Amino acid sequence: MGSVGVQIVCVALGVLGLIGVIVCCAVPRWKVSSFTGSNIVVAQSSQEGLWTTCVVQSTGQQQCKNYDSLLVLPSDVQAARALTIISCMISCLSLLILFCGADFTTCVQNEDAKPKISLMSGIGLLLAGILVIIPVSWSAHNVVQDFNNPLIAAGQKRELGACIFVGWGAGVLLLLAGGLLCCFSRPQSGSSGGTAKYYSNNASAPGKNYV
């Protein structure tokens, strides 16, 4: 069974990863304007997220607008919406399960069941980390591919936003927390059934008469 210190570290990593996924999902900073080449207009810049697109003026004024329709969005944005939300849900559920089965809580009195509960939580955190890394990597690949495409005008090119890096960091934290739980929450080898059977056989031995 994992130690209390490892479980506390995993809880901290999981909470930080969950916060990162929420920020990555809510903040419109997946793609930002690129000012390279002949595109030197800095009066305004555009920022694109999963739910809104924003235009930031040089004066600091920001105007955001929701996307007109889900059907006109690129496939990577549609997938990112679903995967990040699922990642948030799985992360929350895994952390709740971890709190119930952790050694520093008394929600579960059965000591034999706690390693299994922690292991289940670790698997959930691993899955949540993978689910958030997939969309940010997909979006980053598309941004880099479009940036290097000479057929796209300089004013339409985008660069990686802060949410891409936040998503990668959150995914790594969730993977680390889940990996630690899976490694340190294994049930102890051996069971008490064999020991009980051994004593029961020995207890019946004195009752027999040997010649």
UniProtKB/TrEMBL annotation:
<dbReference type="Pfam" id="PF00822">
    <property type="entry name" value="PMP22_Claudin"/>
</dbReference>
<feature type="transmembrane region" description="Helical">
    <location>
        <begin position="6"/>
        <end position="27"/>
    </location>
</feature>
<dbReference type="GO" id="GO:0005886">
    <property type="term" value="C:plasma membrane"/>
</dbReference>
<keyword id="KW-0675">Receptor</keyword>
<keyword id="KW-0796">Tight junction</keyword>
<dbReference type="InterPro" id="IPR006187">
    <property type="entry name" value="Claudin"/>
</dbReference>
<keyword id="KW-0965">Cell junction</keyword>
<protein>
    <recommendedName>
        <fullName>Claudin</fullName>
    </recommendedName>
</protein>
<keyword id="KW-1003">Cell membrane</keyword>
<keyword id="KW-1133">Transmembrane helix</keyword>
<feature type="transmembrane region" description="Helical">
    <location>
        <begin position="119"/>
        <end position="140"/>
    </location>
</feature>
<comment type="function">
    <text>Claudins function as major constituents of the tight junction complexes that regulate the permeability of epithelia.</text>
</comment>
<dbReference type="GO" id="GO:0005923">
    <property type="term" value="C:bicellular tight junction"/>
</dbReference>
<comment type="similarity">
    <text>Belongs to the claudin family.</text>
</comment>
<dbReference type="InterPro" id="IPR017974">
    <property type="entry name" value="Claudin_CS"/>
</dbReference>
<dbReference type="GO" id="GO:0005198">
    <property type="term" value="F:structural molecule activity"/>
</dbReference>
<feature type="transmembrane region" description="Helical">
    <location>
        <begin position="79"/>
        <end position="99"/>
    </location>
</feature>
<keyword id="KW-0812">Transmembrane</keyword>
<dbReference type="InterPro" id="IPR004031">
    <property type="entry name" value="PMP22/EMP/MP20/Claudin"/>
</dbReference>
<keyword id="KW-0472">Membrane</keyword>
<feature type="transmembrane region" description="Helical">
    <location>
        <begin position="160"/>
        <end position="181"/>
    </location>
</feature>
